[in-house]
Amino acid sequence: MNDNGKFIGIVDTLDFITLCVTKFAKVSLLAMDSYQQMEDFAQKKAKDIMNISLRNAPLAVNSTATLFDVMNTLSQRNVHRVAVINESNDVVGLVTQSRLVEYLSSRPEFKDALKVTAESCCHHPVETINMNEFVIEAFNRIWDKEISGIAVVNNDGKLVGNISSSDLLRTHVKPIGGIIHELYQPIKQFNNIRTSTKDKIMMADLPKYEPVTVRADDTLETVINIAANKKIHRVYLVDNNFKPIGVISLGDIIRAFVPMVSP
């Protein structure tokens, strides 16, 4: 909001990803310089990072907008949420892709859209990264490829995890330098991926961040129920060898419903 309390934009995790990639792509080995990098990062204001990713323009819909208007807006590339404003341009709420998918999954009038296959809703290839790469490299790929998440694979190319822009929230800004340490650790360690007996023993009490998968011939109903119940933003398609062959995002799900509510 500006000083007058009017809606002017949105700050999201993609903005923080952009800041991290540009700020910490090169980390100084000198303690004082590294400390200054972290201090500059921590002192940023909301106005400094608002839409620095250029991927979350301050889109808004009127509170009287139709379901089609909202769906059509949220089906656009790089639009993950829209502000809801009244006649005075005051923000009265937010509609996110996640909330819309939850709503669509509960409406019986859309049951015909749920019968299509998962494969038919997958319109873009899946990006992958090896589990031994650093976390900062995953975020760099997310930023560079203009996506929100990336599949993590082992040395055999099998899907073992997922890392997304929202995972940045699991890092720690404090103590000073903490986020640098976490960005420069292997994804395997960050996501507690267990690939050996030793890993299973050492990480036994740590939370798992496993990917959620479906097969190409599963229905959209399966996909949308998984997304809604688990509150996740993407579901991966895997082949019989558990190698990722595609990804279905919340935007893909919403796009499958748009024709059914088109005026």
Instruction: Based on the coordinates given, report the CATH architecture of the largest domain.
Output: Roll
Helix content, binned percent:
25-40%
- End-to-end Cα distance: 33 Å
Q: What shape does the CA trace take?
A: flat
CATH fold name of the largest domain, please?
CBS-domain
Number of helices: 11
Indicate the proportion of strand residues: 15-25%
What is the residue-mean pLDDT, rounded to a whole number? Answer: 86
Number of strands: 9
Q: Give, in order, the helices and strands.
A: HHHEHEEHEHEEHHHEHEEH
Q: Count up the domains.
A: 2
Helix- and strand-based class?
alpha/beta
Low-confidence stretches: none
What Rg is obtained from the alpha carbons, in whole angstroms? 20 Å
Gist of the model:
This protein is of the alpha/beta class. Helices cover 36% and strands 16% of the residues.
Any overview of this molecule?
This protein is an alpha/beta fold. The chain has 2 domains: 13-108, Roll (CBS-domain); 119-261, Roll (CBS-domain). The protein is built from 11 helices and 9 strands. The protein has helices at residues 13-24, 31-42, 46-49, 67-74, 97-105, 135-145, 178-183, 187-190, 197-202, 220-230, 250-261, and strands spanning 60-62, 81-85, 91-96, 128-130, 149-153, 159-164, 213-214, 234-238, 244-249. A hairpin with a 5-residue loop joins strand 5 (149-153) and strand 6.
